[in-house]
Amino acid sequence: MDNEDVKKAHELDCQIQNLLLKATEAREFSYSPYSNFKVGAALLCQDDSIYTGCNVENSSFTVGTCAERCAYFKAISEGKRKFKAIAIVAMQKKWFTPPCGACRQLMSEFGQLDVYMTKPRHDDVLVSDLKRLLPYQFEVTDDKTFE
Ligand SMILES: [Zn+2]
């Protein structure tokens, strides 16, 4: 990723601008008392519905989950399987916050989508997609019998 991938929010499609807003709102619900690192996500489904998520931490650290997976689990648990885009909002001074490796893997299970990353109250958006974020994706293309 380089600076050519950074766009101004107001130049993006209004559906994506709305998605960025929803992710920013979801970030406010972050439960992150241990890291104090708030993340919000908003997932745009094929049918144009939106599911939001935030990171949820736990005193037993591995039990927590990321905002992206939270949004996916909400959508999947309501029958959604196809997604067009996800917006991720977090605050780091120097760069944007792309999804972690585990979230990229989870996303790849449900097909390709565009990924928009920004900061709260920030006009710059890093625009990418899952194919670029997770090249050579794991998938089982043969039958499910492993030798
Ligand atoms: Zn993650």
TrEMBL record:
PANTHER family found in the cross-reference section: CYTIDINE DEAMINASE (PTHR11644)
Catalytic machinery residues: E68
Role, per record: This enzyme scavenges exogenous and endogenous cytidine and 2'-deoxycytidine for UMP synthesis.
Broadest EC class assigned to this enzyme: hydrolase
Keywords on record: Hydrolase, Metal-binding, Zinc
Phylogenetic placement of the source organism: Eukaryota, Metazoa, Ecdysozoa, Arthropoda, Hexapoda
SUPFAM superfamilies attached to this UniProt entry: Cytidine deaminase-like
CDD domains found in the cross-reference section: cytidine_deaminase
GO molecular function, one term: zinc ion binding
Gene Ontology cellular-component terms listed: cytosol
PROSITE patterns: CYT_DCMP_DEAMINASES_2
GO biological process annotation, one example: pyrimidine-containing compound metabolic process
Family: Belongs to the cytidine and deoxycytidylate deaminase family.
Domain of life: Eukaryota
Source organism: Phyllotreta striolata (Striped flea beetle)
Entries under InterPro entries matching the protein: CMP_dCMP_dom (IPR002125), Cyt/Deoxycyt_deaminase (IPR050202), Cyt_deam_tetra (IPR006262), Cytidine_deaminase-like (IPR016193)
Catalytic activity: 2'-deoxycytidine + H2O + H(+) = 2'-deoxyuridine + NH4(+); cytidine + H2O + H(+) = uridine + NH4(+)
Binding annotation for Zn(2+): C66, C100, C103
Cofactor: Zn(2+)
Protein name: Cytidine deaminase
Domain CMP/dCMP-type deaminase: 14-141
EC number: 3.5.4.5
